[in-house]
Every structure is written in structure tokens, then in C-alpha cells.
Automatic annotation (TrEMBL):
Residues 16-287 form the FAD/NAD(P)-binding domain. It comes from the Bacteria. It catalyses: [thioredoxin]-dithiol + NADP(+) = [thioredoxin]-disulfide + NADPH + H(+). The keyword Ribosomal protein does not apply. The lineage of its organism: Bacteria, Bacillati, Actinomycetota, Actinomycetes, Kitasatosporales. This is NAD(P)/FAD-dependent oxidoreductase. Pfam families: Pyr_redox_2.
Length: 320
């Protein structure tokens, strides 16, 4: 049942139609549609959104520039109107059936599962990186580059994708450098960067230089400081797919859980949406994935309900 703050306490004596694990854009979007379909839904969330360090999100039609936390607050208020329960807890284990065990002991029973637990960004181990993450150490040009347009920008070479990132950033600034760091550039990549006006800075970064709570540049091992006002990095995305792995969901060659176009996994009754299966999905795309999965889950539940109702009907008819 819902409590005054919008959260719920598990009673242990009811079966939900759907348990949604993760209350980001994907999970909330699915819960909204499922609630409107008059399904019994619970959302379980540990309160660790990927974009928590960001002050604003962009590219979401009608919500451009909104703080990420505000979007989640609005979403939770909306799903509450349709009787969706929200439980603040971490999922400890899932048993076939599906029984979702929360830390501390309570068990939630549900007919279907939708996992939207997102991912975590594995950042380079450099002083200043975690402190500046989401401020002036950035990762997505489409999400953040407009706000630092026409400024001196750097890309840190920690991943092969850094080359594309540096080339792409030329759309927002004429002053872009690629600090090679740990990345070995091919002759073709060097030619492309040079031709497109991206300066290559040879050397390994040792720290981000910060003064008065502002990024001032990137310091290299030889003592040089490359003056920059924002740095982009290509973090390694690590899916929070432990629960999906526990259930035995199939993965692709890259280690990501495989789903169909609706988010259905290889395990019957289990869907996965958002960054937990697609590291490239922005907030608006993750929300769309949640809605798509909700349609499919509603149809799946309907088929089961009709099948059971037909069996009961036939059994009753046989008795008369």
C-alpha cells in the first residue's frame, strides 16, 4: 500500500501483475502505461540514478533543461495517480515464479518482471575526474556539448571511441584537442583528426586541474597543462544486469543482455529496457523503450488471462 511520501510497504499477501525494478525514465514510463492499463504494478528502486551528477538533461521534448531529479519526481507523482506502488529498497535475489526478495527480507510476488536498472560509468582513475563528473567532465556531446559550445574542449583518449567523439565535437567548437593518454592512434585516425581541425596532444594525463571549483585544464606527465574549460571522456559502460544474469537471460558477444524490439528477454516473463540493455539510450529513448515494453507486457498478461478464463469456462460447462 502507498504511504504518505509516495513509497509503499510490502504486505507479502498480494501478487502484482508486474514488478518494475528501477525507477529511472524507462521504469517509470513503463509503470505509467501499465498503471493506466489498470494493472497492479509495483516499482522497486534503490535510488541510484546514473545521471544524478548532472544538473540538467537535454534532448527530451518538452523537458529540455529539466534537472534529472525533477523528471523522476514528476514521474513518480504521475504513476501514483494510477495506484502504482513504489518501494525504496534494493533487490537482493529473484526466485523463479517470480518472487523478488528485498534486502532485509520482504518478498514481492509478481507475474511479470521488467528490469530497468541502468548502468554505471567506469571512469578513468585520475585525480579530479569523479569530482568534476557531470559538471565540466562530460561524456555525451548530444547531452552536454551545446552548453560548452565555442569553448576550448578536450577529449581524453581512454577508448577507441574517443576519436569519433573528438570529430563530432567539432560541430560545437573550433577549438578541440585530443589528448592521446592511453590511446594509440592509427595513421588513418591521425589523418582524419588533422584534416578535420582536431589538434592531437601527445602525452598521458595525470590529473584535471581545478581552481575555484572550475576546470582549468589537463595536466600531463611532463608537467604541461593544456588549458581547457571542459573535457569529454568515453567511459566504459557497465550494465547493472546482475539480476538478469541471475535469471539466466542470454547475452550477446559484447556481454549485453539480448532482447527483442519490445524488450523481451530469453527468459519467459522477463523484460529489460533502458541502459541496462542499451548503453546509447538517452533519457527520451529509455522512456520510449519502457512504453514499448509495457504494451507487450499488457498483451502477454491478457493472453494468459484469456487462456485461464477459457479453461475455467470450459470446465464449468463440462459440469453442467
Amino acid at each position: 500500500m502507498n504511504t504518505g511520501d509516495g513509497s509503499a510497504e510490502p504486505t507479502g499477501d498480494e501478487v502484482y501483475d508486474v514488478a518494475v525494478i528501477g525507477a529511472g525514465a524507462a521504469g517509470l514510463s513503463a509503470a505509467l502505461l501499465l498503471g493506466r492499463a489498470r494493472r497492479r504494478v509495483v516499482v522497486i528502486d534503490a535510488g541510484e540514478p546514473r545521471n544524478a551528477p548532472a544538473t540538467h538533461m537535454h534532448g527530451f521534448l518538452s523537458r529540455d533543461g529539466l534537472p534529472p531529479a525533477t523528471l523522476l519526481e514528476l514521474g513518480q507523482a504521475e504513476i501514483a495517480r494510477y495506484g502504482v506502488d513504489v518501494i525504496r529498497a534494493r533487490v537482493e535475489h529473484i526466485e523463479p515464479g517470480y518472487e523478488v526478495r528485498l534486502e532485509g527480507g520482504p518478498v514481492i510476488r509478481a507475474r511479470r518482471l521488467l528490469v530497468a536498472t541502468g548502468l554505471r560509468d567506469e571512469l578513468p582513475d585520475l585525480p579530479g575526474v569523479r569530482e568534476r563528473w557531470g559538471k565540466d567532465l562530460l561524456h555525451c556531446p548530444y547531452c552536454h556539448a551545446y552548453e560548452v559550445r565555442d569553448q576550448p574542449l578536450a577529449v581524453l583518449g581512454t577508448h577507441p571511441g574517443a576519436v569519433h567523439q573528438a570529430l563530432l565535437l567539432r560541430q560545437w567548437s573550433e577549438d578541440v584537442v585530443l589528448v592521446t593518454h592511453t590511446l594509440e592512434l592509427s595513421p588513418l585516425e591521425r589523418e582524419q583528426l588533422d584534416a578535420f581541425g582536431v589538434n592531437i596532444v601527445e602525452g598521458r594525463a595525470v590529473r584535471l586541474v581545478v581552481d575555484d571549483d572550475r576546470l582549468r585544464g589537463v595536466e600531463l606527465t611532463d608537467g604541461r597543462v593544456i588549458p581547457r574549460t571542459a573535457v569529454f571522456v568515453f567511459p566504459r559502460p557497465a550494465s547493472r544486469d546482475d539480476l538478469l544474469a541471475l535469471l539466466g537471460c542470454s547475452k550477446d558477444d559484447q556481454g549485453w543482455v539480448v532482447t527483442d524490439r519490445t524488450g523481451r528477454t530469453s527468459v519467459p516473463g522477463v523484460w529489460a529496457v533502458g541502459n541496462v540493455v542499451d548503453p546509447r539510450a538517452q533519457v527520451i529513448a529509455a522512456a520510449g523503450m519502457g512504453s514499448t515494453a509495457a504494451f507487450a507486457i499488457t498483451t502477454d498478461l491478457l493472453h494468459e488471462d484469456v487462456e485461464h478464463a477459457t479453461a475455467r469456462h470450459c470446465a464449468t460447462a463440462d459440469l453442467t
